[in-house]
Description:
Layout: E1 2-11, E2 20-27, H1 33-43, E3 47-54, E4 57-63, E5 68-69, H2 74-86, E6 93-97, E7 100-107, E8 110-116, E9 121-122, H3 128-134, E10 138-143, E11 147-152, H4 155-160, H5 165-169, E12 175-181, E13 187-193, E14 198-201, H6 208-219, E15 223-228, E16 234-241, E17 244-249, E18 251-261
Parallel strand pairs: 2-3, 4-6, 11-12, 13-15
Antiparallel strand pairs: 1-2, 1-18, 3-4, 4-5, 6-7, 7-8, 8-17, 9-10, 10-11, 12-13, 13-14, 15-16, 16-17
Amino acid sequence: MQQLTMYQVDAFTTELFSGNPAAVLVLDQWLPVETMQAIASENNLAETAFVKRQPNGWDLRWFTPVHEVDFCGHATLATAHVLANELGVEGELVFTTKVGALRVNRKNSAYQLDFPSFPPQPIGAMPPMLSEIAGGLHVSVFRNFENIFVVLRDEQAVLEFIPDLPNIEKLDPFGLVITAKGGEHDFVSRYFVPHAGIPEDPVTGSIHSTLVPYWAVQLGKTTLSAFQRSKRGGQLVCELSGDRVLITGSAVTFMKAEIYLP
């Protein structure tokens, strides 16, 4: 029987029971994909991260309860927190992932994530099903490689949005992001990915790789305060720096556990 240590971390928050929880396992060698997926399904969190040391940094992979994904922000933050805060790894962390190198640096009590920018891509006419999902409240719509983004008329519309999860699931392989200009914050958002086993993601770093370049143009500024308006909620301080998006957030450890594999 194999015994492994697993951490659970609340990301994009300074307080337990808010932000977005992620599980993190630091491995010497990759487990079989089926085993990593089984662990993620057992955890039933939005993401479980698996990280492995390599000569010049770390290899990082993420799994939802349903499948492996190409890009995840909050579990990257959670992984950096485990390596730096729990295991004492010092200096810049460089993660090799399916979307390229992701860099994380400690900034006082928080972490700065250095992600690629994925500028919004036009969709054209609003598809009828998407218009029905948005309830006629949309201002514009665009996409990136993994999500469809719908801009609603105001923050209240984002807060009051009731997701039609069966229809949103039909957008597979795309998730749905809704967003609007904020009041206390520059912009707000919510994120739904039911086909990946995530009805609503509490706080999502990856979607900000597209939200930040979009709102930077709309608001005429490159440093932005963002808030994800889920029930748990989470704040992100963002900056558009050329072709990179810098996101600063905090994380707290909730649990350290031993798991047993056959």
